Amino acid sequence: MKKRISFYKQVECCKQCELRKKAVDYLRKEIKLSDGAEFTLYSLPDGKKRQPYMFIMQNPGMGRKKDYKKEIDDIKNAKGGLEKVNQFKRYLIVWLKKNSNFMTNFLNLLKKYQLITFDDVNAYIEDRFLKDFYVTDLVKCRADTNWLGTNRKRGEIDPSVCFNKFLKEEITKVKPKLIFLFSSRAWDVFKKIYNLSNEKLKNAHGNLFKIKDGAYIIPLAHFSQRQFNNYLRDSYFDYLEEGIKAYTSKK
């Protein structure tokens, strides 16, 4: 318990880079909200509870005031780190259910290859998903995608800082069998740190890789409708299925 709370406090108090300040400034000035949810944590690693899969997104996004007002109020009113994490989880589940097209196809593929079991998608998301998947972000602070990168001249902030400070520890403690990694910036960090490939995400999407920690990883484009439109018909999931088939052949 103490280790989990310690991890939360480290994230809460982090000032390793300029991202936290930018997140706070954005919430205050653009959305007209006070401090309270400039970072997110849906899970806390303790080295004991180990989900078989990790679901790693790029970063918690920014949004309009109407999207975040109730969420931020609920988080601010939560008492203590664990209660705040529970609020983050609650809103994560709501968000995943809103992305029903992606989640239905994604989960049914995993079910097809017997990686998970369920009868109803929504019931699984609500009751079982976070028991099978450790969900986290490469970058813990809320951020605009354009803030992230390695071009300092453009004012970009290197997301690998957050990997080295937090995500590396999460992977080490969770010890996942398979990681689903979403978005190009997340892939850029992983392929460099783990020396995986020189391919851009559009070519690596759905392929299976193995990292030195022993886990397998499948990089994927972000699951927004805009990204789906870049793939012919169901090819987003066709490529993903190839990666899952490759993984099950190695089990």
> Per DSSP, what share of the residues sits in E-state strands of 2 or more residues?
5-15%
Largest sheet: 5 strands, mixed
Distance between the termini: 32 Å
Overall mean confidence score, pLDDT:
85
Kindly state the number of beta strands. Answer: 5
Oligomer: single chain
Order of helices and strands: HHEHHHHHEHEHHEEHH
**Known CATH architecture:** 3-Layer(aba) Sandwich
CATH class: Alpha Beta
Contiguous helical run count: 12
CATH topology description: Uracil-DNA Glycosylase, subunit E
* Shape field: globular
List segments where confidence is low: pLDDT < 50 over at least 5 consecutive residues: none
Helix percentage range: 40-55%
- Order of strands in the sheet with most strands: 2-1-3-5-4
CATH superfamily: Uracil-DNA glycosylase-like domain
Radius of gyration using CA atoms only: 18 Å
Secondary-structure class: alpha/beta
Q: How many structural domains can be distinguished in the coordinates? A: 1
Structure characteristics:
251 residues, alpha/beta, Uracil-DNA Glycosylase, subunit E, five-stranded mixed β-sheet, 5 strands, 49% helix, globular
Structure characterization notes:
This protein has a single domain, classed as Uracil-DNA glycosylase-like domain (Uracil-DNA Glycosylase, subunit E, 3-Layer(aba) Sandwich). It is 49% helix and 9% strand. The chain is of the alpha/beta class and 251 residues long. A 5-stranded mixed beta sheet has the order 2-1-3-5-4, with helices on both faces. The protein is globular and about 50 Å long. The chain starts with a helix and ends with a helix. α3 runs antiparallel to α4.
